[in-house]
């Protein structure tokens, strides 16, 4: 049986809090002006210790919301739905009378409407009963981590997703539940549901999605001797933040509240295989591609804050809009500079698979960061790299989130010649282990200067062997990717208009042709 994966769509105005000309929705963020500076941070001792080790100061974003402000809202008949200490705000359903009352409160800075008219965009189908993870395990050299005894042990991993139906009974996840590896589960869509409800009650077919993601991070089936994910011994904290396959109000507050909850528990590694781009009922409310800039959406700003101020490593699927000619680019929060955005490659050539979203040329930094094989969407390539990161964090728990990202990028097969189709390419476990051990890496990258309209590269490969190339207009932005055949042991590249560089991907080696 197949079912559909969905990506929910998000809209929150930029920091200017632009007003709407359409009828106002009934759900709002109520933003407070300040906090009680003397209040203790709402963080666990483990989180405080981790912050101290990494030189990350505790600030106002860690302090709880003012109890006095919350009480005054209650006195006005306003019931907060979600609370965000990072943005110093609560969300609530407000009647016209409540809107007028709340605006008069001296401690309220702003009311921010949350649009109600949302629909979902559909993505490729996935069959949980026939997982296709073996190719990617080979691609990223999973055996190297296994030989080194790296399985994500002692690493806390958070998963923010649409649902985890059947997770406790899936064969590939049985080992997690036997050892109590799933510590806590929260449903931010329906707070009244228990953990067992989340595992056993199916509201929509998208409730399988988080189960698949979890399997791609930590899946292991001993009876079949198949490993689906790398972090088989990690500890997991799960949160459902998205609902169903049709949506009628914004759920960004769920995601923000969930990421703050994970931070309070000391979780430093988070997978979120979700993305927000467009699909609003009213086309005027859709995101524009230019808004995938890393700071327009609330989810990107929250993810950036998690990276910069909380030391969290957020691994995000790049998006599946690569074949959509009217969009093509990554969705948010993959656009945030501080997150690790993961695209998808095909299994044979390791170049971009058609659906995988590309990085906007307007960004001053490279997106996606890296990529790996996934037949069924970037929702399943991101968790593979989350498991990869968990192994690195087990090997050296003192590494910062930025250091882990740098190691993953440097270990990738195209490094340092990244591009906005696949980032730095596919991370290689053997290379990251050498970097962790401070061993010298074998030279796998070189550049070649070329002039004129063509160049012939001797490669020493068999005739008719296929090689992937990326034609680029500059150092990172791809014009097109192609597959060329070797002839007489050489690869002939004929330059196209606007081509300034050409990356030749040999998997074990990368050659950068720099055209004069």
TrEMBL record:
Residues 154-425 form the Peptidase S8/S53 domain. It comes from the Bacteria. Keywords: Hydrolase, Protease, Serine protease, Signal. The active site is at 161 (charge relay system), 209 (charge relay system), 379 (charge relay system). PROSITE patterns: SUBTILASE, SUBTILASE_SER. InterPro entries: Peptidase_S8/S53_dom, Peptidase_S8/S53_dom_sf, Peptidase_S8_Ser-AS, Peptidase_S8_subtilisin-like, Peptidase_S8_subtilisin-rel. GO terms for biological process: proteolysis. Transmembrane segments: none annotated. Pfam families: Peptidase_S8 (PF00082). The keyword Hydrolase applies. Residues 1-18 form the signal peptide. GO terms for molecular function: serine-type endopeptidase activity. Belongs to the peptidase S8 family. This is S8 family serine peptidase. It comes from Rudanella paleaurantiibacter.
């Amino acid at each position: 049986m197949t079912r559909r994966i969905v990506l929910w769509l998000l809209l929150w105005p930029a920091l200017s809090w632009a007003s709407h000309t359409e009828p106002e929705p009934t759900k709002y963020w109520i933003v407070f002006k300040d906090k009680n500076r003397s209040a203790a941070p709402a963080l666990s001792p483990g989180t405080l210790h981790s912050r101290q080790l990494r030189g990350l100061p505790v600030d106002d974003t860690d302090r709880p919301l003012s109890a006095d402000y919350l009480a005054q809202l209650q006195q006005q008949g306003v019931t907060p739905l979600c609370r965000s200490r990072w943005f110093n705000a609560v969300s609530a359903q407000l009647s016209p009378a409540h809107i007028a009352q709340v605006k008069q409160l001296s401690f309220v800075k702003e009311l921010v409407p949350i649009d109600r008219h949302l629909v979902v965009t559909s993505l490729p189908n996935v069959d949980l009963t026939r997982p296709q993870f073996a190719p990617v395990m080979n691609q990223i050299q999973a055996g190297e981590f296994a030989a080194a005894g790296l399985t994500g042990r002692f690493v806390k991993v958070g998963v923010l997703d649409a649902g985890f139906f059947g997770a406790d009974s899936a064969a590939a996840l049985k080992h997690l539940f036997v050892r109590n590896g799933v510590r806590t589960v929260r449903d931010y869509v329906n707070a009244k549901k228990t953990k067992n409800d989340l595992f056993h009650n199916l509201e929509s077919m998208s409730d399988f999605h988080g189960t698949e993601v979890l399997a791609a991070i930590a899946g292991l089936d001993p009876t079949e001797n198949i490993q689906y994910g790398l972090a088989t011994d990690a500890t997991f904290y799960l949160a459902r933040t998205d609902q169903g396959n049709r949506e009628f109000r914004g759920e960004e507050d769920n995601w923000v509240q969930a990421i703050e909850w994970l931070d309070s528990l000391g979780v430093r590694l988070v997978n979120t295989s979700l993305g927000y781009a467009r699909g609003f009922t009213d086309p005027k409310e859709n995101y524009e591609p230019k808004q995938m800039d890393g700071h327009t959406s609330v989810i990107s700003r929250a993810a950036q804050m998690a990276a910069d101020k909380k030391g969290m490593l957020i691994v995000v699927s790049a998006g599946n809009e690569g074949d959509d000619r009217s969009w093509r680019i990554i969705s948010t929060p993959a656009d945030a500079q501080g997150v690790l955005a993961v695209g998808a490659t095909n299994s044979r050539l390791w170049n971009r698979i058609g659906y995988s979203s590309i990085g906007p040329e307007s960004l001053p930094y490279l997106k996606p960061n890296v990529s790996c094989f996934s037949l069924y969407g970037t929702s399943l390539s991101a968790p593979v790299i989350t498991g990869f990161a968990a192994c690195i964090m087990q090997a050296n728990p003192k590494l910062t989130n930025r250091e882990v990202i740098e190691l993953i990028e440097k270990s990738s097969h195209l490094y340092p010649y990244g591009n906005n189709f696949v980032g730095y390419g596919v991370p290689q476990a053997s290379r990251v282990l050498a970097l962790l051990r401070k061993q010298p890496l074998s030279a796998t990258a070189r550049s070649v200067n070329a002039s004129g309209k063509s160049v012939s590269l001797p490669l020493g490969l068999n005739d008719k062997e296929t090689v992937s190339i990326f034609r680029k207009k500059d150092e990172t932005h791809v014009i097109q990717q192609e597959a060329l055949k070797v002839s007489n042991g050489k690869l002939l590249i004929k330059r196209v208009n606007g081509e300034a560089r050409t990356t030749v991907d040999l998997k074990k080696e990368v050659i950068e042709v720099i055209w004069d």
